[in-house]
Amino acid sequence: MLLKGLFEVRDAVRPISACEMALIRLAYAAELPPTDRLVKDLMDGNATPVRTQAPTSAASSRAPMASAPKGAPALNMVPAPAAENAPTLRALEDIALLAQKNGAPVLKVHIENDMHLVKLEAGRLEFRPSPRAPRSLAGDLQQKLRDWTGARWTVSISNEPGQPTLAEAKKNAKAARIESVMQAPVVRAVLDRFPGAEIAAVRDVTHEDAPLPQPEMDE
Fold first, then answer.
1. Domain limit, last residue, from 14, 45, 60
2. What is the pLDDT of residue 79?
């Protein structure tokens, strides 16, 4: 429990709160019988079912349940509540959108500009940070994902190149679209007619229906 508390304090956004929660769990555990006595009672078949529910932090709400030896009375362990309506995160864009919805604009900027995605699966995220990324980005994002989804997440740094950042991908898509438009004969003719002209942006214009002719008024 102490080692787990140390890891939580190290990775938490608010280390003091994480430390207080670890101390509270230790206080609850102090009231339990000694471990050797519990094991002996279980092996002898004389154990009294124990029900404990110590407060847990978001980082420890998915701790695995302990199993009793075969043939011994099972302990009434309290399972961690399952996360309801947890968002599905399939891409880095989903995580950036989740940060925006939860009022974390600074973290959203770092997700879009400083993260090269390497692997993303349920409960696990690997990325290569950019040189401008803060050192605490992995720990901060891990804690936020646990708070926002109610599930255990592991966010780690990788040495693999990874994908372009969201900002780079957006910039590359814009450049590719402009290059495609420049190949159109009409656009090419305009650029040749006005040397130095550049395409600033490409927008999709919805053609509105032409207005109906107004009936003529008799004089």
1. 60
2. 42
**For residues 83 and 150, what is the distance between their CA atoms, to the nearest angstrom?**
5
Question: What is the count of structural domains for the chain?
Answer: 2
| The pLDDT of residue 63 | 44
- In angstroms, rounded to a whole number, what is the distance separating the alpha carbons of residues 76 and 34? 17
| Closest alpha carbon to 111 in 122, 100, 123 | 100
Type of residue numbered 81:
P
Residue 107 included in any domain: yes
Q: What is the pTM of this model?
A: 0.48
Residues 6+ apart with CB under 8 A from 182: 188, 191, 199
pLDDT digits (tens, 9 = 90+) for 155-170: 999 999 999 999 999 8
Distance (Å) of CA 119 to CA 89, 107, 164: 12, 19, 13
CA 210, CA 198: separation in Å to the nearest integer? 31
Q: Report helix, strand or coil for 134.
A: coil
- Residues 79-104 pLDDT 10s: 444 445 667 888 999 999 999 999 99
Can you list the residues of the chain whose pLDDT is less than 50? 47, 50-52, 57-83, 208-210, 219
At 188, the amino acid letter reads: R
Answer for the pair 124, 140: CB distance below 8 angstroms, yes or no: no
Enter the tokens of residue 1: 């429990």
- Give yes or no for a contact between 151 and 62, defined as CB atoms under 8 angstroms apart: yes
**Per the structure block, which two tokens stand in for 42?**
């279980």
Tell me the residue range of the domain where 111 lies: 92-157
